[in-house]
Design goal:
The structure holds two protein chains of two kinds.
Chain A lengths: L1 H8 L5 H26 L5 H7 L1 H14 L7 H25 L4 H26 L9 H4 L7 H30 L1 H6 L4 H23 L4 H15 L3 H25 L5 H19 L5 H25 L7 H9 L11 H23 L4 H5 L12 H11 L7
Chain B lengths: L1 H31 L3 H22 L4 H26 L3 H22 L9 H6 L19 H4 L4 H19 L1 H9 L1 H6 L4 H23 L1 H16 L5 H29 L8 H19 L13
Classes of the chains: A mainly alpha, B mainly alpha.
């Protein structure tokens, strides 16, 4: 298993498998970075409508090709058909949202279910058309790379490469538009056309991904990497780059994993690799992750306990809270028997002084923003100028000796 | 026509109509609350639920599978909320991450499990098998009065009827709070309606409808019926009461027309085999929605800004 995985990862597992792994990686890059634009425009799920509306096109293309006496299963033909019907589905979503009062999510849901149902009607027609054509079009639902023809693998690899090139070429206007359409329009970018290009990219990714991941799961390639990348950074261009890397990694590793053992369907494995990255990011991302949030919370807790402990020392009150005692002890502010050290008395006096200064400041500047900065933790020196503090001290009188 | 119709078409038709109505009822509130795609998400995550139920029990029996599916739906809703809150991700994307991943897990589990001996596959989950729910022992209309034949009715019929009735009952009982919290959540909260619980309850009701309908008719119909009939009804009227009635009518009409067209349409066109009833019902509901978009009296967006 491990040996086979290594072979697949290093493109040693046969020519077809190598092309599939390469194509999946390229497709992942294109889908991840392309999906970022959709995600930033908050229209991630429109890709679901696009993906589902490819099905009638696939079925119809098959029927037409058979009727014309062709092979029916020719991948470029089927992909062309799927692209056409995906385009119609996309137009239907746009039309419903702009012409009627239905919201976009309703339009998306309606288009995806109706087109998919219509496609299923075609699939049942094809099943009964003639027994010679067991088309295997079901492979488009969940993707199938087992027994993929060499030419199909080439189509996928080339398509993935083209989609990546498309992203690289159009990243500037697409970033502008997805980040701030009004600003983009003001800087001379044609928003409508860029939107159209964005949708074209989504369509291209979907269509190329059909054979590999299947139409039900191809949306995952467009959604999961951007969401994962967004957890790591706040900068648009980095989100795009990271999403591309995450998508590419999921496609590459997922396809290799699936090639290395039986009963590991390519599409679901790629999606699950992406999801695993997402879960890891959700836990460990620096600013938005669960772990980071827990650490932040703990630090806040410690600061509150330290401050309250020092105030209690300053007022000569006994401290009972275990955490407060531990915090103060660790910093050497109190001894083992909870009596304040010299350092502790100094810190306590300083904290008390800070608290009194704040009290005066809040009377002085009642209507100003400073008022809102008081949270019982922030030292006043970090908010006010030296002159202001001197004025406060004048009103407060000289510091009392710490007892 | 009579005897054959009762035997082969009556029960699938009834089940189709009941499933359509059961999904359309909660759908009305879902589309008004901008949660239309919850139905889509739920019907995807049902798959891992039934696969896990199969792995646990080892048989394809109804109740464990329904439980598994309902459990998966609840897990999905919780997961979506968690991703939204913890990662501060917009709802659509959170939903997309969740349902695709769960669906992928379901497919993988299915591939890894030996299900060759039982009828459990992805296609079945998607299309359902409405046509197979026939009433074998019926011999004509008078079988409706024959207790022996009645005992042989497909169990899906009773299940679907019970669920449709339950959903209708819930909608009637909670009508006022549901309506209030759908249109003005802030006000509803202010007058003491537990809006969060109500919202979760609505999603659970939708999940129950989806799971029951899924068992009988597959997930395409479920998604289509959650959205298309209520959306078409929304364009017909400004009053929620009337909208719900319209949506029930559209749902029943789609189910009926779709079933008939799937069964007899190809024959009229010179074909020999029926096409997928589930697919056709979804298609008909789409046609109805398209007509509503073109012709319905309240189709246009007047006075409301774009995107609302």
């Amino acid at each position: 298993m491990f040996r086979a995985l290594l072979d697949a990862l290093t493109f040693q597992a046969g020519y077809n498998a190598a092309l599939v792994v390469l194509g999946a990686g390229l497709l992942g890059i294109a889908a991840g970075s392309g999906g970022t634009f959709l995600f930033l425009r908050k229209r991630a799920l429109i890709s679901d409508a696009v993906a589902h509306s490819t099905l009638p096109g696939v079925g119809l293309a098959f029927i037409v090709m058979v009727m014309l006496g062709g092979e029916g299963r020719s991948l470029p033909g089927l992909l062309l058909g799927s692209a056409l019907s995906a385009g119609i589905g996309l137009l239907a979503v746009e039309w419903i949202t702009s012409r009627t009062r239905l919201a976009e999510d309703t339009a998306i849901g309606a288009v995806l279910s109706v087109f998919f149902g219509f496609g299923v009607v075609f699939l049942t027609i094809i099943q009964t058309m003639s027994s010679g054509y067991q088309a295997g079009l079901e492979g488009f639902l969940l993707g199938s790379t087992a027994g993929m023809l060499f030419n199909d693998a080439v189509v996928i690899a080339i398509g993935g490469g083209l989609a990546v090139a498309f992203v690289v070429l159009l990243r500037r206007p697409m970033t502008l538009v997805s980040f701030n359409p009004e600003f983009a329009a003001a800087s001379g970018v044609d928003v409508r056309r860029t939107d159209l290009a964005m949708m074209g990219l989504v369509m291209a990714v979907t269509v190329i991904g059909l054979k590999l991941v299947g139409l039900i799961l191809v949306v995952a390639l467009l959604i999961i990497p951007p969401v994962t990348a967004r957890l790591w950074t706040e900068r648009t261009e980095r989100v795009i780059l990271a999403a591309g890397i995450i998508g590419g990694f999921s496609g590459y590793v997922g396809a290799a994993l699936s090639a290395s053992a039986p009963h590991l369907p390519t599409g679901p494995i790629i999606v699950l690799v992406g999801f695993a990255l997402f879960v890891l990011s959700l836990l460990f991302a620096p600013a938005r992750g669960v772990l980071a949030a827990l650490i932040r919370h703990r630090q806040f807790q410690l600061r509150v306990h330290r401050r309250q402990g020092l105030l209690a020392l300053a007022h000569n009150e006994a401290i009972f809270d275990k955490l407060t005692l531990a915090v103060l002890r660790r910093e050497g502010l109190i001894r083992q028997d909870a009596v304040a050290t010299d350092k502790g008395r100094a810190a306590a006096a300083k904290t008390l002084r800070d608290e009194s200064r704040w009290a005066v400041a809040r009377q002085l500047y009642e209507d100003e923003a400073v008022f809102a900065r008081y949270d019982g933790l922030t030292p006043i020196e970090s908010v006010m100028t030296r002159d202001e503090i001197a004025e406060i001290d004048r009103r407060l009188g000289p510091p009392a000796a710490a007892s | 026509m009579g005897a054959e119709f009762v035997q082969l078409s009556l029960t699938p038709l009834l089940i189709g109509i009941l499933a359509a109505v059961a999904c359309a009822l909660p759908g009305n509130f879902l589309i008004l609350r901008r949660q239309a795609l919850i139905g889509d998400a739920i019907s995807h995550v049902v798959l891992p639920g039934i696969v896990v139920a199969f792995l646990v029990t080892g048989t394809v029996s109804t109740w464990p599978m329904m439980l598994g599916a309902a459990g998966a739906a609840v897990v999905a809703v919780i997961l979506i909320e968690t991703i939204k809150r913890v990662g501060r991700i917009e709802p659509g994307a959170a939903m997309g991450v969740t349902f695709t991943s769960l669906f992928a897990a379901g497919v993988l589990l299915l591939e890894q499990t030996d299900t060759s001996g039982v009828h459990l596959d992805v296609e079945h989950a998607l299309y359902g098998n409405l046509e197979s729910l026939i009433w074998i022992s019926a011999e004509g209309w008078n079988s409706l009065l024959d207790p022996v034949a009645l005992a042989d009715l497909p169990p899906e019929l009773f299940r679907m009827a019970a669920v449709a009735f339950l959903i209708a009952l819930i909608v009637v009982i909670f009508w006022r709070p549901l309506k209030l919290s759908t249109f003005d959540e802030g006000f509803a909260g202010a007058v003491g309606i537990p809006t969060a619980a109500l919202g979760f309850g609505l999603v659970v009701a939708a999940a129950v409808a989806a799971v029951a309908a899924f068992d009988a008719v597959g997930s395409i119909i479920v998604i289509a019926m959650f959205i298309c009939p209520p959306a078409a009804a929304r364009l017909m009227t400004n009053r929620l009461e009337i909208q719900v009635l319209w949506s029930v009518f559209f749902a029943a009409l789609s189910a009926m027309l779709g079933y008939i067209l799937a069964g007899y349409g190809p024959l009229w066109l010179g074909g020999q085999n029926a096409v997928s009833a589930a697919g056709m019902i979804a298609t008909v509901s789409g046609v109805i929605l398209a007509l509503a978009c073109l012709l319905a009296p309240h189709r246009s967006r007047i006075g409301a800004p774009k995107g609302i």
